[in-house]
Amino acid sequence: MKEIPSEKGLFYDIPGRGILRIKHLVLDLNGTIAFQGKIRESTRRLINELSRRVNVYVLTADTRGKAHHLCSSLEAEVCLIKKGREKEGKAEFIREKGPGETIALGNGDNDQLMLEASLLGIAVLGEEGCSVPSLLKADMAVKDVDTALEILLDPDTLKATLRS
User: Fold this and answer.
1) Which domain holds residue 39?
2) Model confidence over 105-116: pLDDT tens digits?
3) Which pLDDT score, from 0 to 100, does residue 6 have?
4) What is the distance between the terminal CA atoms of the chain, rounded to a whole angstrom?
């Protein structure tokens, strides 16, 4: 008997929200998954694990000019956002992918519309901190990116945080 491949996606059953079916994970680069131009190995491992289940995108205006090199070991698509339009560009990206199937992680002021537009927006405090407007637009906040990625891999933890 031929095995039918399962469709990519993350599924969460959240009391008060229903079943969330996620196809896309959108990550801000600087300040969210990278700090001072470096991505921790643990973060790389978690992103690559999630990429086996969802489409992963890294959004950046490439402030440091090293985004493609920095992300070369990630199983993710690096997407450049026009400088000066980061806030709007990130939200447009979410709308193009399908906001009802997208989780976004961010920390900067230019991430607030992206976090709000996503089905699930996660504010990452991290070493760089998080802008208060972005924090207020998010559905949840976490101490660092690895915590966010680990929660996405554990439906019970996400359920415990978001159930109403």
Assistant:
1) 14-127+147-162
2) 999 999 999 999
3) 53
4) 43
- What DSSP string describes 119-132? SEEEEE-TTT---H
What is the spatial distance between Cα 60 and Cα 41, in angstroms, rounded to a whole number? 20
Quote helix, strand, coil % in the chain, to nearest 5.
40, 25, 35
Considering the domain boundaries, does residue 18 fall inside one? Answer: yes
* pTM exceeds 0.90 for this model: yes
Radius of gyration of the chain (CA): 15
Write out the two tokens for 137. Answer: 């637009």
Q: What is the CATH number of the domain that holds 100?
A: 3.40.50.1000
Cβ neighbours, 10 Å, residue 65? 9
**What residue has token string 């300040």?**
31
Summarize the confidence of residues 60-70 as an average pLDDT: 90
Quick: pLDDT tens for 26-47: 999 999 999 999 999 999 999 9
Around 68, how many Cα atoms within 13 Å sit in the side-chain half-sphere? Answer: 2
- Check: CB of residue 56 under 8 Å from CB of residue 66: no
Q: Which residues contact 146 (CB under 8 A, 6 or more apart)?
A: 40, 42, 43, 46
